[in-house]
Amino acid sequence: MDRAAEYRISGSYYEACNCEAICPCRRQGDIPGGRSTYGDCDFLLSWRIQEGYFEEINLAGLNVSIAGTYNDDVGDDIWSVFIYIDKNATNLQFEALSRIFKGEAGGNLGVTANFSKILGIKPADIRLDHTAGVENISIDSLAAADVVRNYRHNGRVSCGIPGHDHPGQESVSNLSVNDAPLSFSYSERCGFATDFAYWN
Fold first, then answer.
1. Region 120-132: what's the mean pLDDT?
2. Is residue 17 part of a domain?
3. Is residue 13 part of a domain?
4. Which residue range is the domain that position 59 belongs to?
5. DSSP codes joined into one string, 92-157
6. Of 187, 166, 186, whose CA–CA distance to 14 is shortest?
7. Is residue 200 part of a domain?
């Protein structure tokens, strides 16, 4: 088993998936989330690291994205994912971010506990705009997501995984991924934007 490492990263977060807004996986107030809208969840997640380090390695200014899919009825460790890491990362930064987002570095990045199959870890041109209300993701020619409009709702909404304790803004969003074996495209489904902080 890989040893845990000291790290801390924080910044902005935006995701989109094929559920209907408000995504039923979300926590609404004190009510925990449940099953996805259609029983299968196809998703694209993105992180813009504004501040961060892994041991002595500076990670500020880098982007990470994860595309994947899961089925509600397959069990607990159910996600099949690609991890995309900023092409501008040095070899040391790439390795550090790989360890963090695979869960090998320990800490509170709970999303990695769900990975049953990592399809690949790739350097990519990850272009993120996390400006409120116009968030979007572009990853080479492989994946994209964008906000169509914010979804109006009352009360606090937070994401189940990751960053479940960070409230954010629900949206109606488009998303698509074309990176075999993942292939999906959806219009006007759900999105969610917030901030994040992970550490060990």
1. 98
2. yes
3. yes
4. 7-195
5. HHHHHHHHHHHTTT-SS-GGGGGEEEEEEEEEE-EEEE--TT--EEEETTTEEEEEEEEPP-SS-E
6. 166
7. no
